[in-house]
Amino acid sequence: MDARGGKVFLAMPPHSGEDALLKSILVVFPEISADEAPSVIDDVQRQLKPFFVQDGLMIGEFHERNRTPGQRVPRPVTVAEKVFKRVWSAS
């Protein structure tokens, strides 16, 4: 995904209704280790974020070691941590 990501996302169906509000893309990088995730995933998110925000979208960085506070949550949601721990421990 690159700077066009937000426009590509907006062009994907559905375009209206509740389904459009809940539309999301999840990108998984199984080859990135927990040690590499903060530098790789956070860096990509930081580079792409301005383009997504410009299109009125959000782009998040979710990994086991994510310590980025959310706008409404003082630290990342623990559910995401549990999911990623299961994924990484299974590999």
Q: What does the model show?
A:
- By secondary structure, the chain is mainly α.
- It has one domain.
- Helix content is 48%, strand content 0%.
What is the element layout, followed by pairings?
Layout: H1 5-11, H2 17-22, H3 37-54, H4 78-90
Mean pLDDT score: 77
Count the domains: 1
Which band does the percent of strand residues land in?
under 5%
Outline, from the CA principal axes?
globular
How large, in whole angstroms, is the Cα Rg? Answer: 14 Å
Give the SSE order as H and E letters. HHHH
Q: Could you say which structural class the secondary elements and strand pairing correspond to?
A: mainly alpha
What is the CA-CA span between the terminal residues? 25 Å
| Percent in helix | 40-55%
Largest sheet: none
Low-confidence stretches: none
Number of helices: 4
Strands, total number: 0
Please outline what is shown here.
This protein has 91 residues and is mainly α. It has 4 helices and no strands.
Record keyword descriptors for this entry.
91 residues; mainly alpha; globular
